[in-house]
Amino acid sequence: MKRIAMIFLVPLVAVADLVKQSELDPAPVVSVGLYKNGLAVVTRQITPDNKGVSRVDGACRPAYGTFWHSADKPVTVTSSKADLLRDTDGQSVLSSWTDTYAGREASVTFRAAPTLSSTIADAEKNGGVRIKTFSIGEKDNLFTLSGTVSAIHDARKPPEAPVRRYYAYQEPIQQAPSSDLSLRLATGSLVIIPDVNVVAVAAKDGVACGIERQAPVLKFEGATKPYAVQYLTQGAAWTPAYRLDLKDDKGTVTMTADLRNEIMDWDEAEVSLISGFPNLLYAGVPSLIGWDMSFNRYRDAVNAAENADPWAIGGARMRSGVMSQSVMMNSAAVDGFEVSPAAFTVNESGAGSDIHYRSIGKVSLKKGETRSVPLGTGESEIKRIVDWDVGDSRDEYGRNRKNDNEQGTAILWDAVRFTNPFSFPMTTAPIEVTEAGRILGQAKSTWTNPGDTTLVKITKALSVKGSYSETGDGKTISSKISSLKADERFNYQSRDYRKEVVSGTFIVQNFRKVPASLIVKKTISGEIVETSIAPTKNRALPAQDCRVNLERALTWEFELQPGEKREFTLTYWLWVLI
Question: What's the CA gap between 465 and 510, in Å, rounded?
Fold first, then answer.
């Protein structure tokens, strides 16, 4: 008895065409530069054919304005989509699924009309069922069947009088067309699946391939010699970490880095770790050449990168963004000064041109993997200190912050100061402090050049106390500063200010049985009049448009003997909003 379900289907895409389209240039990653914030500079090698064409997997999103190549001739790049045969184990797919897997046991996942559910279930339970699947489009179901891939539709001789259950017919034994995959189930039933409906095949011997519908493809045209393409993208990063192990007056600094790859596989790629403060204005704007991009998304990302409200900056209308159509508007005059449009979005922090690349050699890392690598160990002399940062008690208008005279000003920290022992900068990262195998604390280590010193807070100092208080009324002026003219007036940005003189008092006491080295830091708004102890450092801070007073950072360094109490004073004047 032979039961037959027969419906013919003309494949939409021939597998031979898919194979031709799927001959992708692997374009391997030859180098990667990693930033800490998830950005990476990726360099890949393009190997074109003798016609100057190379098709590359296009599942990448370069940042706008960073996609460049090194070819000696002009190269055109086209972003499109295609159906691709994907190979997961290194075996090439031949002219059809059947040619590749004939005679082997495999599991086949395919699309078929939902109405075939009962017929397929019958074929899995009973022998003699023969089905040719068909598709109805978006409402297809996914089915998975296991059996032996057959090179012919049916190796048995058809019966002389077939039972007419679905549709009876007689045909000679024949080879399966290259557009069909024939699967003989364990029950003996045969399922014939058009190649175009096959989603994936996994053989028991480990070979697995599948079709990816409408996969992104980049087509390079123009140069016949191999060349590199480089772009900035998101999806890979490095995260540094430090450990400072204390022993007497020495410290051992160890540095490691975690590498995270979410872009594509790296095979012996040269990896560099990038640290510094680069100005990457359009790093968050995907290029139109990137995968799954639309113009609307690109436009919105550009506007967001340039300014949340690009038409109202500094009280003027800015029409100088990259979306501007007019050449004469490529620079904008704001308050009478010609400025770069990028100037509105740059936030200065750190050394703008100090970008440090540190090569760690060749690394192989698959997509989705993370690896921790050692970066070096060095010894440094250390000094244990007590750090007290009083801060600034005045706001941008010179007014005393409410309830701030004592809050936050009496927190002293046990800290350690050490020198960067490496030949490269220590970038901003967490640093763990240990001693004799015990963790004392963890803090943040900031950018430190080779040979420079840095300070790391460990724990609150409970046996060294400090207090700071200040008074100021603008009326009591000592003879030494009578030239200040109490209650003098000043107008700044259409606001009236009066001059005020402030007196501050520091009190510190060491309750320990050993000497304590102190660093006391105080930021003031205004100018120093006099101090009972001259500060070790007196540094002017950059002016800020929103503040009527200039700021100064003052530092005192001294040693307190066991049980010693010390008091010193500071007098300064500033402008206060009336």
Answer: 7
- Give the Cα-Cα-Cα angle 539, 400, 470 (nearest 5 degrees): 70
Classify residue 438 by burial, with Cβ atoms within 10 Å: 0-12, 13-18, 19+: exposed
Q: Considering the chain, what percentage of its residues have pLDDT values greater than 90? A: 48
Pairwise CA distance, residues 538 & 572, whole Å: 13
Give the residue among 220, 283, 400 at the shortest CA–CA distance from 41.
283
Can you give 444-469 as a three-state secondary structure string?
A: EECCECCCCEEEEEEEECCCEEEEEE
Q: Running DSSP on this structure, what letter comes out for residue 561?
A: P
* pLDDT given for residue 166 in this prediction: 41
pLDDT at 409: 54
CA–centroid distance for 156 within its chain? 60
User: Residue ranges of the domains in the chain?
Assistant: 3-15+90-213, 294-348, 384-420+447-577
Q: Which helix (H) or strand (E) holds 558?
A: strand 551-560
Euclidean distance between CA atoms 160 and 168, whole angstroms:
11
Closest CA to 309 of 292, 327, 296, 321: 321
The pLDDT assigned to 471 comes to 83
What would the mean pLDDT of 360-364 be, rounded to a whole number? Answer: 95
Tally the C-alpha atoms within 13 A of residue 292's C-alpha that lie toward its C-beta: 4
The pLDDT confidence band at residue 340, using thresholds 50, 70 and 90, is very low
Q: What is the pLDDT of residue 491?
A: 84
